[in-house]
Design a protein that fits this description.
It is found in: Cell outer membrane. The protein has about 1000 residues and is mainly beta.
Length: about 1000
């Protein structure tokens, strides 16, 4: 196995390829003008260039906003079962979610959601479109699920790496990803693909078929596609810290964190460790405090002395000598749960898509699309249900061995603290998110004459609904668990639950002392078949109309104009099960979730995890936009330049009016092939449904105000007074596009600077009290610390800010081998993104801005790059590609030191080693055309089986970072494509 970060020669070789391409280039600029993206139009209907960075459509027009394009041939070479994975690998995409992310979460709501994120700004600040149209969200935050898109009919994907709110509206702060379908596909094609990892798991199969035909002398066209894909995932290895199916790289990484008060000894506060042992529980139970601390239980409940790591000895106070709470190093690791998280979800995709169009006249066409997409995911967030020294076992518990009862009496104790991984549970937690999208679009497009000029128009209306059901199986109810483990001897020497009310309502005693079989009746009591459940519906309705034309000309050329209007409504409804949302003995109940005297919390939260709550809300948007492309000059010596300007006015029913704009320019200089471009924009992200209408929740809490501790009601609720986030996105670029002295070669470099203010973020109750004391009147209005009923309202506020800057490189070089007497052609391509800094200021009193650039525990490495080298003939192709993530740090705020360390602080902790390795991956693939109709292909990803870098946590954690690293290992795929 090749270790990541230790492949210096490989790095140098791959970077030399990039340097040889004269830095890098924008792929779409590398195409000759005749290769510009066009729609194959019906007879006599105007063909226009589709530019995703703009709403202007005009032949020969070049936008100032950088755009990376992947055409169908590029996507075929990647040969992924899910198109999302191919796009997410692009360097500018950072922080995208997929089936390997969030698998340690039960309640996040984003599990199994394939959503794209540009610049690490999260998916909520990236606008993902289908044929330039919005798609209904698949989550309460409104982000789309790319897995629900039709994929076989996608002919290109444009990634606009610049602010595009003026052109497309809210959420395009980081940019736009536009999936463009082949609207005139004719014939039949299919794709069959299968594969697995070298660990013989994550077996996958994909079946896709598409058909299209023209009717009525070419005036009508109908196409359809159907897709089925199954990726079976990686099963949980359960307990013990061993990697799944022989993945030896997992070693229970963690941080040992000493108390700040102890860091005056010159030693660092943070230390990276492997084989971290949680000493607050054991696999089948551990006494964690008092005179019996260190007694663990094994088969049949037999007690034994627990083997602490680090040579630790229990102190009887809960601490262990030689260990730093909560970790020792080594020892008995059999109860470790971190490695038991699913690496890759079991995901099934089913998609149906159809598009029909009819030419009313040579200049006017109507169309419709129907899309159905269902994505079903399953995974295990963790085995068992660990209890970290937070259980109390009474010494009269009849499940205790006699020796422990005797030891209790000898030490004059009646109870002890206890921790367990609950490894004896018969089944692990299984989370099953199912997202089902139904979307219909109707529209018209065409051309008309007005004022002696030719104009085109595009209009559409769409309505979509995503139904999301999250079902959780094998989840325990905390209060029932607590009642069931507290057992006593009853009449006739039977074992019963101590709590009389619980016993009367069906409590069955549960033995958690050692490795013993679980009573099925006890399991049914603590983990009822009707587990946590969330049902939600996301709805979106959009009506849009736009016009394009060239109303007049200046001496340097025609002025292009686009304008239009759009109306949109977003709404959602979320329902949680009664045990999670709130049910008690006095509230209505159902047969599935009956009232229970031990489940008396009116706000719910009874489950170990997965407590979903009810919520609902909606808002509507009305907006209009205008965009102009104005030629400024055109001459043989100076070249030609244009000015591109756009403006959009938006009115939200919740936050009122907001404006966005864009000003940019492209200058094709008089120097052969050299082009300069610049664009700056004001972009917006409106608060989403979840931020506006979060489910209300009330719990008790304490805060400190002016030196006094107060008990308050903590009221969590959405904030309908939120304002849109405001972004300022500036890009400066240089492009060398196919100079005569180097035909087939293009390169570009673009500097980007993105500032986002009024960033929406949530705070703790104490943080809100501190901000109020500091003079923030908006937050003061969210609390009352004077009246008899004191409260603090937890809401999202426009407090934070973000500033991300760096540069993109892209290069492309194509040349034929015919001059060398060899068949075919060679294509070299390089893409890279370097993040100089990514500073976030939370706006919270007592905190400092943090820089996420190069933090490999996060989403934005210093460098993320792709390289590829392809050889192609009419019959065959072979591609070698590389993916690179640079070395980084755990945090830019850490101070690295080994000795003579300064005293650690909250904002600047000290750490022994602040280095986190990157990774370099090799992929290979090829294809061979058996005949004109059948092409076979293969693909191997992560050829050298590079392991992910350890991602240590400060508590029980995942141990890996799937947002940056390949966590599955080497993957093999083979397939065949049919075309008729």
């Amino acid at each position: 196995m090749r270790t990541p970060g230790h492949q210096t020669l490989i790095h140098i070789a791959a970077l030399t390829v990039c340097a040889s391409l004269a830095l890098a280039a924008r792929a779409q600029e590398a195409q000759p003008a005749t290769d510009a993206t066009t729609e194959t139009a019906a007879p006599n209907v105007l063909s226009t260039v589709v530019v995703s960075g703009s709403r202007i459509s005009a032949r020969g027009f070049t936008q100032p906003t950088p755009t990376t394009r992947m055409v169908a041939a590029d996507l075929e070479k990647v040969a992924k079962p899910n198109l999302f994975d191919a796009i997410a690998e692009l360097p500018a995409l950072q922080g995208s979610t997929g089936r390997t992310t969030s698998t340690n979460s039960t309640s996040s709501g984003i599990q199994g959601l394939s959503s794209l994120s540009l610049r690490g700004l999260t998916p909520i600040r990236t606008l993902t479109l289908l044929d330039g149209q919005r798609v209904v969200g698949a989550n309460v935050t409104g982000v789309t699920d790319v897995s629900q898109f039709p994929q076989l009919l996608i002919k290109q994907v444009d990634v606009v790496t610049g602010g595009a709110s003026a052109s497309y509206g809210s959420d395009a702060v980081g940019g736009v990803v536009n999936f463009v379908t082949d609207k005139r596909f004719t014939g039949f094609k299919a794709n069959v693909e299968g594969g697995e990892t070298n660990y013989h798991d994550d077996r996958n199969a994909t079946l896709q078929a598409a058909w299209g035909n023209a009717f009525l002398d070419g005036r009508a066209h109908l196409s359809a596609s159907v897709e089925y894909s199954r990726e079976k995932g990686v099963p949980s290895p359960r307990f013990g810290g061993a990697g799944a199916n022989g993945r030896t790289w997992f070693k229970n990484p963690a941080f040992q964190v000493r108390p700040i008060a102890q860091t005056n000894d010159g030693k660092p506060q943070y230390t990276f460790i492997e084989n971290a042992q949680q000493f607050q529980y054991a696999k089948y139970g551990l006494i964690t405090n008092g005179p019996l601390q260190g007694t663990a239980f094994g088969p049949g409940g037999t007690p034994f002395q627990f083997q602490y790591g680090s040579g630790g000895v229990p102190t009887g106070t809960g601490a262990v000598t030689g260990c730093v709470t909560p970790f020792c190093v080594g020892g008995d690791l059999s109860g470790t749960v971190g490695g038991g998280t699913t690496l890759g979800m079991n995901m099934t995709r089913q998609v149906f898509y159809t598009r029909g169009s009819y030419e009313l006249s040579p200049d006017h066409e109507i169309f419709f699309t129907l899309n159905y997409g269902k994505v079903d995911s399953r995974f295990t967030p963790n085995p068992g249900a660990a209890k970290n020294a937070n259980l109390t076992i009474q010494c009269d518990n009849p499940f205790l061995p006699a020796s422990i009862v005797t030891a209790c009496a000898a030490n004059n104790i009646t109870s002890f603290q206890y921790g367990t991984a609950n490894a004896e549970f018969p089944k692990d937690i299984e989370v099953n998110p199912v997202r089902t999208q139904a979307r219909v679009t109707v529209g018209a497009n065409g051309r008309f004459d007005a004022f002696g000029k030719d104009w085109t128009y595009d209009a559409y209306a769409t309505h979509g609904q995503n139904t999301i059901d999250i079902n959780v199986a094998n989840m325990t109810l905390n209060n029932r668990y607590t009642a069931a483990i507290d057992a006593i001897r009853g009449p006739n020497n039977t074992i019963i639950c101590r709590n009389a009310a619980a016993a009367a309502s069906g409590c069955v005693p549960l033995n958690i002392i050692g490795d013993v079989p679980i009573d099925p009746a006890a399991w049914a009591y603590i983990a009822p078949a009707n587990g946590p459940h969330q049902h939600s519906r996301q709805r979106q309705s959009v009506a849009s109309f736009s016009v394009n034309g060239e109303p007049f000309s200046l001496w340097a050329g025609p002025v292009a104009l686009a304008f239009g209007a759009e109306a949109r409504k977003e709404q959602y409804y979320v329902t949680g099960d009664p045990y999670g949302n709130g049910v008690s003995a006095d509230t209505p109940n159902t047969a599935q979730y009956p009232a229970d005297p031990v489940l008396t919390n009116p706000i719910g939260n009874h489950w170990y995890a997965g407590n979903y709550h009810n919520a609902a809300g909606s808002y509507n948007v009305k907006e209009g936009f205008i965009e102009l492309n104005v030629p400024m000059f055109k001459s043989a010596s100076l070249g030609e330049a244009n000015l591109n300007i756009a403006g959009r006015h938006t009115k939200y029913s919740t936050s009122g009016n907001v404006d966005s704009w864009k000003v940019g320019s492209t200058w094709k200089t008089g120097v052969d092939g050299l082009r300069l471009r610049a664009v700056t924009s004001r972009d917006v992200r409106a608060p989403n449904l979840s931020e506006l209408f979060a489910a209300p929740l009330v719990v008790n809490n304490t805060v400190n105000s002016n030196g006094t501790t107060l008990t308050v009601q903590q009221r969590t609720i959405g904030n309908t007074r939120l304002r849109p986030e405001i972004g300022r996105n500036t890009t400066l670029g240089l492009v060398l596009a196919q100079p005569k002295w180097a035909p087939g070669f293009s390169a570009s470099i673009d500097y980007f600077d993105i500032k986002v203010n009024d960033v929406i973020s949530s705070l703790s109750a104490q943080q809100e009290v501190d901000l109020c004391a500091a003079g923030n009147q908006e937050i003061c209005a969210a609390m009352d610390l004077v009246s008899a009923t004191k409260y603090v309202t937890l809401q999202a506020f426009n407090l934070a800010s973000m500033h991300n800057k760096g540069f993109d490189l892209e290069g492309l070089y194509r040349f034929n081998l015919g001059s060398a007497g060899l068949p075919g052609s060679i294509t070299l391509r390089a893409l890279a993104t370097h993040t100089n800094s990514f500073v976030t200021d939370s706006g919270v009193v007592g905190t400092i801005p943090s820089d996420a650039a190069g933090v490999n525990l996060g989403n934005t490495p210093r460098w993320k790059a792709q390289f590829s080298q392809s050889w192609e003939t009419d019959a065959a192709s072979f591609t070698v590609s590389q993916r690179w993530i640079s070395d980084g740090v755990y945090s830019n705020e850490y101070i690295e030191c080994q000795t003579s360390c300064p005293v650690s602080t909250v904002t600047h902790p000290t750490i022994l080693n602040n280095q986190m390795k990157g990774a370099f991956y090799w992929d290979i693939g090829g294809s061979y055309k058996l005949n004109k109709n059948v092409t076979v292909y293969f693909k191997v990803d992560n050829l050298t089986d590079v392991a992910p870098a350890a991602a240590p946590q400060t508590g029980t954690g995942y141990g890996i970072n799937p947002f940056l690293y390949d966590v599955l290992g080497r993957q093999y795929r083979v397939g065949a494509r049919l075309q008729f």
